[in-house]
Amino acid sequence: MHTELTRRHLLSASSAGFGMLAMKGLFGSNAQAAMVNPLVPTQTHFPARAKRVIFLFMQGGPSQVDTFDFKPALTKQHGKPVAKDSPTVFYQSPWEFKPRGQSGMLVSDLLPNIARHADDLCVINSMHTDHNAHPQAILQMNTGSFAFTRPSVGAWCVYGLGTENQNLPGFVTINPAFSGGGPVKYGSAFLPSVCAGTPVGQGGGASATAPETPLKDIQLPFMKNSRMDVATQRRQLDLVQALNRQKLAQDGSNEALEGLITSAELAFNMQREMPEVMNLNQESVATQEMYGIGDGKPTDQIGRACLMARRFCEAGVRFIQVNHEFWDDHTDIFKGHPQHALETDQPVGALLTDLKQRGLLEDTLVLWGGEFGRPPLLNKNKGRDHNNVGFTMWMAGGGVKPGIRFGSTDETGAKAEQDKVHLHDLHATMLHLLGLSHEKLTYRYAGRDFRLTDVFGEVKRGLIA
Amino acid sequence: MALAVAPPAETLWSLQPFAMQTVPAVKQHDWPRSRVDHFILARLEKENLAPNDDAEPLALLRRVYFDLIGLPPSLEEIEGFEMSKFAGVVDQLLASPEFGARWGRHWLDVARYAETSGNTRNMAYVLAWRYRNYVVRALNRDTPFDEFIREQIAGDLLPAASDPARRDDQLLATGFLNVGVKSLGEQDKDLYDMNVADDQIDATCHAFLALSANCARCHDHKFDPIPTADYHALAGIFRSTQNLSGVQTNNVLKEAEAMPLGKDGMQRLTALKQHEKDIADMQKDYVEVAKKRSTVREELIKAGIDPAKKPAAMPKEMAEKMATLGVLEQDVAAWQKKLAEKQKSAPMPPPLGMSVRDGETPIDCPVFDKGEIKKPLAPVKRGALSAIPVKLAPIGPKESGRRQLADWIASPQNPLTARVIVNRVWLHVFGRGLVDSPDDFGKMGMKPSHPELLDDLAARFVKEGWSIKALVRELVLSRTYQMSSSTRSDAALAQDPSNLLLWRANRKRLEAEPLRDAILYLGGTLDLTPREGSPIADKAQAITPQGREVGRKHFLNDLKDDTTHRSIYLPIVRGAQLPMMQCFNAADPGLVIGARSASITPVQSLLLMNSDLAMEQALGFAKRVTGRSLEEKITCAWKMACCREPTAQEIQMLRGFILVSGDNAEGWTQLCHAVMQSGEFQTVY
């Protein structure tokens, strides 16, 4: 069966009013039940600038003054203790900042490949978030809430927009770490379960250079039958569907059974399509090299993740998250940060190049950053600690202003000062770019309308082109 | 900030008192079999709708099996069934221990039951399973629901039952308050306490009263008559309560203790603690003697005498020291022996449970300005919700107030409690509640579709002793329950497509647990013994208490669905449910879930198509149908899965398949696997 045919069949079925997949509460529904298929593409609140999101989550917290937040004043303070007799000192970045591209944006030598895309980056230097500990900050970055179980950002996007390819999940998270909330980071909480992220691989371990779960040859569970070949399985499914149709004819109206019939067909197709999208061997050697894919290369894991992200993007997945951990260099940041940069910089740079040359960057919002940043200080272990009151993230594509730096931190880069952007503001702006109002995208659960930004968030117009 | 004024209580239907109603008259006299039927039929007649035909006997048999015990009937039961036996079957199912395994799961959804703390530091609750098993037992012995409430809110404060096992259950019941989500990574102790109280308020108010009080943490409830003062009155009760969880972290120390169980649990725990203290004391003495010995020995060495060689001649002073050393050596050896013996004589630790007890110094909780923990305002006296017209007994200065709160919730005068539970039971019997928002009886929730019926049921439920089983029995013996689910009545379908008025039975998708149980049942591997314990507790054994954090060193990272016990006994990790449970919409234990979602997804199909579970059970299923003729095998497989004879057309399709696949083990496995994937198997008609 051809994909095109399936899609057409699907669209015609949905326009005929048969909700097919997650028909929440179909069988004697509850109050929230709506007989709609949350995966069918929906009308946005206003015209969208971005159709999809790639979130490059640098778990652990990259240091802003070593990457995108140049602080010349720090040189004057360099080496001075932060307080009398404190072993912690102000510390200028050891990496040189250079003007890049036409915009002349200052980016350090730590991330040379990303720096090459400076003219496409919309760097937010004035980020801040509520919590200074990893678990809470990671959860808040991924769900908006650090204290309660709430749907993840990706789940909200799928809930709000549906998805463009019904043979694939709407939200895929690649290499997610178990730490910092585990699957809560891509869960659906009270939203329909189809909105939850499908994990590809599992992150974790000391470094992406020697991953515990390599993405090479990664397979999703239940995607392949261990005892039947495809032809036998097709014949078996034909029997199942014939029995179902027979029953449907007897039942009269039975939308749930119709849903099941379609769903089984999609599942069968997904078995073929998902591994196909995940199969990077279909890419040219040049492309694979650009992403840094290759046995033993430190870039192999994130290179695969980024290339897979592009393929999911092309295939119509709504929200793709690439996860890298763990930028938490409390000890010897001079060794740690270059290692994380080595593992991620080339793949991320390649992803931007690739998206751009395929014309995908225009309507794909790319987001890069950690759950918080680091202070401009060096502790006695030659590391930098946590900083949630000032840090940097960047966006690219998807309707953001290219080649700009937005907001700023104080003299030393410790605290967001001008045009501050709270994490809720970032989420609000991201939804806005997707054509969704963060105040209107609500879900009623237990007597209350919930939203990603709770009662907070402000769309930062200055970020939007 | 201007706040929306909460509406007065009079306007909320659910806060009005309820009473038995006059049974409405109906035109079609011969239809109703029970009071329930009168209410349903009267409403249908008012809307000019006719009730559906009665269900086929075997469809009804399958329905009542799944609804009451969550399992399909056996082949013998199917073949021996006739309608005259229906009431007997109902009684037999209500008496079956499998009733508790099915209905206990419904309650665990509401109790947001899980075996880890979730959230920031997802620590294992190694004792939580005892609460789970308590719930199963409580439903099986048909604990009156008012008592079930009292046990869960204040079981530890109730007069102790004389039977030690029942006393344990009173203590374990309070696990309800303790199995919720906890932010064990939270450093701010006040915020931690407030978040725990928040979870307890959320669970208590949603589960028993179907009200959400939590908005009132920061501002007066916008829709329901719950001011912030009420929220903090409840918070005071829970903040005066101590959790006994058996969870040790380096951060939150107050969760570390657990509740000793058994006839002499407390004595055994005391003895154990005494024993540990004795050992510590002995060790102190031992160290002292050992030190003395070392000092003497060093003095000798300093003087150039090697004590090991026992030189024959030495100064008198040194000889004396030598003698002292000899005595000390003997002392040390004696102490070592004594310690070893003492350690061997350690008393057996008592079994432990998750529970709560009143804290040492009960407090009234301050209202926090906009919920901010750093901005406490004046404290509010411990109490309950002011809008509910039930008087709360006075709370003494040394009491948390849980006992009073439990009585207040379980009061026959409480307008919400009985309505809420009757509605929950109705929901699980009929597939949808009379109030379609089972966890929200507030202003933003749904109004009842049959208000008089709900009130009549609630009033009789209370009057007749709060018996869940009696209520279930009455409902399934009604003619309303026994209608066909057919949607062939075009007129009725056009008029009431969502079946709000119950002109037919609702079709119900099997939830994750009965679906998995039915698959294991078909495969012949289902183990019906209740599971004492949990793989989470087992895996935790090898790990220090502080290290029992999900994900850490891959702890609980690899939980498998490899038990053949019923699904209620599967381990539940917050945020990482087993695939089968997650994808078939098992309740998210982060939330109080009265009604599960019934989404249909391709991943569900993939799981039934390709999982080891489905493949292996299909193999077993095929083995169970062998030893018959081809036609008989087809009929047998179909009957076991769908509880009816296959039609001629179905036989033809199945036969056609087997002729291609081969009339052999492999072919039949494929066929049985197909039957398990069919929509009919996954649905209760």
Task: Give me a quick take on this structure.
The complex is a heterodimer of chains A (465) and B (685). With 465 residues, chain A is an alpha/beta fold.
Report the mean per-residue pLDDT of chain B as an integer. Answer: 93
User: Could you estimate the helical fraction of the residues of chain B in percent?
Assistant: 40-55%
The computed structural class of chain B is: mainly alpha
Distance between the termini of chain B: 53 Å
The rounded Rg of chain A comes to 23 Å
Number of strands of chain B: 8
Count up the domains of chain A: 1
What would you note in describing this structure?
The complex is a heterodimer of chains A (465) and B (685). With 465 residues, chain A is an alpha/beta fold. Chain A is built from eleven helices and 17 strands. In chain A, the strands form five sheets. In chain A, strands 1, 5, 6, 7, 8, 9, 11, 12 and 15 form a nine-stranded mixed beta sheet that branches. Chain A has a two-stranded antiparallel ribbon with strand order 2-10. In chain A, strands 3-4 form a two-stranded antiparallel ribbon. Chain A is globular. Chain A starts with a helix and ends in a 15-residue tail after the last strand. Chain B has helices at residues 35-46, 57-69, 75-79, 86-95, 98-110, 129-140, 145-154, 164-173, 175-178, 189-209, 228-239, 265-302, 316-344, 402-409, 417-430, 451-463, 468-476, 490-495, 512-523, 535-540, 579-583, 602-610, 612-625, 630-642, 648-661, 665-677; strands at residues 241-244, 259-260, 352-353, 355-358, 365-368, 376-380, 508-509, 683-684. In chain B, strands 1-4 form a two-stranded antiparallel ribbon. In chain B, strand 5 and strand 6 (376-380) form a beta hairpin. Classes of the chains: A alpha/beta (465), B mainly alpha (685). At the A-B interface, helix 4, helix 6 and helix 7 of A face strand 7, helix 21, helix 22, helix 25 and helix 26 of B.
